[in-house]
Write a structure and sequence with these properties.
Helix content: 40-55%
Distance between the termini: 77 Å
Number of domains: 2
Number of strands: 3
Number of helices: 5
Radius of gyration: 28 Å
Order of helices and strands: HHHEHHEE
Shape: elongated
Largest sheet: 3 strands, antiparallel
Structural class: mainly alpha
Length: about 180
């Protein structure tokens, strides 16, 4: 009886080991597939960002599908200046668009919110929402680090602060960042 129990135990362990090897092989194959698809996805996302950047050169800030809006009658939808709040259509600017660089936008946001500070991720989000600036996730931190070396901003923990209160703008950018003590 002991011999039979030992044989059953060995058979069970062998079956478990075989099952594990098969699952590990499947796991490796799926992981390799996902990694290849992630590379493909990142490539497509870079191309989409390039398309967005190219469209901004022509004053178009919306995604490509927004440019082909048509009415029910099949005519292109025309946005009136009144719908835009009295502004001219972004497709027909009278003067070239002078969108700031990411660096200029970061300085502007920090000056507007002075004496409060902003996190780098918030600055990146504000640049995207206010100016349509698409930036890599590391751009904000690297830009702010360079600005710190130039003496234009300072850092306290995760928050960045303007060093130029005399250039403070009065309008609020609604960043909702808490004030932090000076360091």
């Amino acid at each position: 009886m002991v011999l039979r129990d030992e044989m059953l135990r060995e058979d069970a362990l062998e079956a478990i080991t075989d099952k594990r090897r098969g699952l590990e092989k499947q796991h490796g194959e799926v992981r390799a597939f996902i990694q290849n698809e992630m590379k493909r996805l990142r490539s497509i996302e870079r191309e989409l960002e390039d398309c967005d950047a190219a469209s901004r050169v022509f004053g178009q800030h919306e995604a490509a599908e927004d440019t082909d809006e048509v009415t029910a009658a099949g005519q292109p939808k025309i946005t009136s200046p009144r719908e835009l709040g009295g502004a001219l259509s972004p497709l027909t600017p009278t003067v070239p668009s002078l969108k700031p660089s990411f660096k200029e936008a970061a300085i502007e946001f920090l000056q507007k919110i002075y004496p409060r500070g902003l996190k780098a991720t918030h600055i990146r989000a504000l640049a995207q929402s206010h100016y349509g600036i698409t930036a890599h996730e590391k751009t904000a931190g690297m830009t702010l680090y360079r600005l710190k070396k130039e003496g234009l901003v300072r850092r306290n923990g995760f928050y960045w602060y303007s060093m130029a209160p005399e250039r403070h703008h009065t309008e609020d950018i609604d960043a909702r960042a808490p004030a932090a003590p000076d360091s």
